[in-house]
Amino acid sequence: MKISHSLILAASTTAVGAAGAWFLKPAGPASGAGNGPAGFFTLPTAAAQGSPLPVTAEAKAAAAAVLASPADFLKAQQGQSSLVARSRILAAVGTMSLEEIRAATVKLRTMGEGGGTPAQWELTSCVYERWAELDPESLLTDAVQRGMQDQSGYLGVTAAFRELVKKDADGAWKRAQDLGPLSYYAKREILGGIGSGNPRQALKLAMADGQTRRDSY
Predict the structure, then answer these.
(1) Counted domains in the chain
(2) What domain range includes position 114?
């Protein structure tokens, strides 16, 4: 898999200014259209909304509903405005413990992750974001084990490296070298994270990477 063109573009896009930063949001593997993995427009994640959210009775009830049946929870959101649906998803996921997140992930995988409606994609993405907030290392281990057999690898790696780059950008970049096909998504997330604060460093890092440089010509 050639990764350089989009990686360099991610870094250079950040370098020209914040106006282009929206493009750095990874859209996921090509597997559909619209507000899903193949589209540029993704919904806010739990991390973006400052999780953990306040633990209220409503949030606890929403979390219990997700754990009981993600499909029924999503069905109950039908007919609601997108903002209301998103707020309920964020309330549910943002208050979950690591054990609850793992349980929710197992159930979501039986539904076909990221497929179906934008609300299902939002719920799935938020679950992985919350897992990354709580324990990025265990999430990364899970993602590597699953690889590219489904979207678990992509979702897990992007969420994990979104957190890891905040703590140690250089270390995260080194770890991203040995992830096989998942390296593409890890590196893109790292460049986006670095580029938001230091676009020149992101571009320099992308251009200095041997694989990136070789594949760009």
Answers:
(1) 1
(2) 4-215
